[in-house]
Amino acid sequence: MARPDTELTIGELLDRNGVSRRSFIKYCTAMASLLALPPLAARAMAAQLRAARRPSVIYLSFQECTGCLESLTRSFAPTVENLIFNVISLDYDDTLMAAAGAQAEQARAQAMEANYGKYLLVVDGAVPTADGGVYHCAAGRSGLDILSECAKGAAAIVAVGTCASFGGLPFADPNPTGARAISSLVPGKPVVNVSGCPPIPEVIAGTLLQYVTTGRVPDLDEHLRPTVFYGNSIHDRCYRRPFYDRGEFAKTFDDEGARNGWCLYELGCKGPTTYNACATLKWNNAVSFPIQSGHPCLGCAEPDFWDRGSFYSPIPTARWGKAGEVSPAQAGTLAGVAALAGAAIGAGSVVLARKRINRNKRTKSHDSEKGNEE
Amino acid sequence: MDLVDFARGPALKVAFVVFFIGVLWRLVNVILLRHGRMLSEPRRSVGAALLGGIKGMGSRSWPHPEFIKRTVTGEALGYSYHIGLFIVILFFAPHVIFFGSLVGMRWSTLPNSIITIFSVITLTLFVAVLSRRVGHPVLRHLSNFDDYFSWFVVALVLITGLMATAHVGGPYQTILGLHILSFDLLLLWYPFGKLMHAFYIFPTRAIDGYLMTRKGAPS
What we know:
- The structure holds two protein chains of two kinds.
- Helix content of chain A is 43%, strand content 10%.
- By secondary structure, chain A is an alpha/beta fold.
- Chain A has three domains: 1-52, no CATH class; 54-230, Rossmann fold, CATH 3.40.50.700; 232-340, Irregular (Cytochrome-c3 Hydrogenase, Chain A, domain 2).
- In chain A, the strands form three sheets. In chain A, strands 2-1-3-7-9 form a five-stranded parallel β-sheet, sandwiched between helices. In chain A, strands 4-8 form a two-stranded antiparallel sheet.
- The termini of chain A are far apart.
- The mean pLDDT of chain A is 87.
- Chain B has a single domain (3-21, 45-214), classed as Fumarate Reductase Cytochrome B subunit.
- In chain B, 76% of the residues lie in helices and 0% in strands.
- Chain B contains ten helices and no strands.
- Chain B has helices at residues 3-8, 10-32, 46-59, 68-91, 93-103, 112-135, 137-142, 145-166, 172-189, 197-214.
- The interface between A and B is large, with 47 and 46 residues.
């Protein structure tokens, strides 16, 4: 009797599906390259993957726009079908799965029970916590409740997208639903943030693949993002960087600088403060990325990027309060008021000093008159 | 709110307000304080004295020929790092954007490589100035906390700026935040320490020049 898919190793599944060893090695070499591993690691990865069983993956969606999943479905290496049919066992994803309603929930419960402590939980979207979490409900339960239940038996959690990683748009001020990042709701669980709005598809797929290959959470930065993808700023890897270094900037979107492909720093590019792989992996099978298409980086892979004023406000601008960028008029008014206050204090202190001097003079002359009389 | 947002937001606002209040406070204070009456008979007219005041701003900014051998090192160091500071502050692209956003205009910038060279030279001169102050027996006795702290706040801005440009010492945002915070500290300290010389230097030289001319002495 044929063994069920869940018991087969990835190698056995590939053999059954007619994937040649050569194709598989090529695939692993591409993945090793994507993960910035040395060439020899491709063989080790191939051996590891062939022997591994496909990990069960449960994919939950909360306050999100489905952009992250849309992004993942456009992954070229590995392709999403390769990923979900050959590398992982996607047991629950209410957007992609054929089942719906009670059947879908049953599939999730079964997968969790069968793989307790071993399954990978992938989450996109922030989780609303205000008013008992009523702002996101599925199958009659709050998102908070579902996340807590699924997180318990997960080996690790991958928060996909900026909403899941840092709260994103739902978390933006005034955050009426009490949205929170996944890492703040699952204490004690290993969490990997794959931030971006949306994240690069190859980064999502690569992170999952790295976990499957090594069986452990990758090296992470201070925001819990895999350093292999988030180790460099967009600015450091940007092909327009030489223009920045030479001080050649586009001032508007249609000036000579913009037409010549000069640096977009003055147009609000957040590349220097944004860590992601956009400038190296790019999008749509490495065709382009926003800066290459003539638009400044929005900084979407960083926390609170929605609350940092206009996307077109350059990084080194003064920002006071919630109003965002300070206008010259506001700065001038504040400086004027402060200067008037300073002048008043200065004049006041002079008046007091003169009074003190006069008083001292009077006391002195009074004392000397008294001395003369004596 | 992260460090950068704090540094360029509320911290900058407070520093900005304290700077303007402090500068005007001290300027008005000095201008309105009662000055000693000139008791001698005026030798030159008011017009000539005014011209002498203008001349004084220039002549007192240059080493006196009689003392040039003794003062040339200090003067050369002082002029060099001031020029370096002005170039770095006024012609580095992010600084132009920053100051430009506050005054409503932008001006030409210099390439980063030139700014980096000037920053390194300026910082080296800064260290030389401090070494001279510590090593020179007279200067050391004349120096107090104000001198060293004023040196420190300016050097801190320079060092953190270089670190941010070179991407060393930590994530760029953190170093950038520290750089802007150190600038906030500079603004806070500015009116209350010897950095205030930037506002006093020319008016006081002009007043000296005026008085000396009025009394018949060369300005």
